[in-house]
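Hey, I was hoping to borrow your eyes for a little while. I've been staring at a protein lately and its backbone has me curious. You're getting the sequence in one-letter code plus the fold written as tokens. Would you mind checking whether the tokens look sensible for this chain? Here's the protein in full, and shout if anything looks odd to you:
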Amino acid sequence: MIDDDDGVRKSLGRLLAERHEIDTASGAAPARALLAANAYDVVLCDVMMPDETGVDLLGSLDAEAAKRVVFMTGGVLGAELQDRLQQTGRPVLLKPLSVSTIDAAIRDTVTALGRR
């Protein structure tokens, strides 16, 4: 899970760790290192981060890793970023997040990839 907000990353990380194996990253650069070293079923990624957007990070991933990205956002996005986000075709979860919303996004992503 990638989120630059320490509070969100820690609380969401604890919540997810109750049911899933999870790694967290505070931005795109540390996320790249994790993504290069590990194969993840799902990557929850904040859209707005100070170093670069989640959409920029997605664009740097190989096609297989990009299929696993689920975006999260709680901010107001500019028109250009909204368009770019929509063009990715990836799911977008709106913060604040509920457990059921996160679980459904994880389940849907894994199912779409043909995994259980």
User: Anything to note?
Assistant: The longest helix spans residues 99-112. The CA atoms of residues 74 and 96 lie 7 Å apart. The mean pLDDT is 94. The radius of gyration is 13 Å.
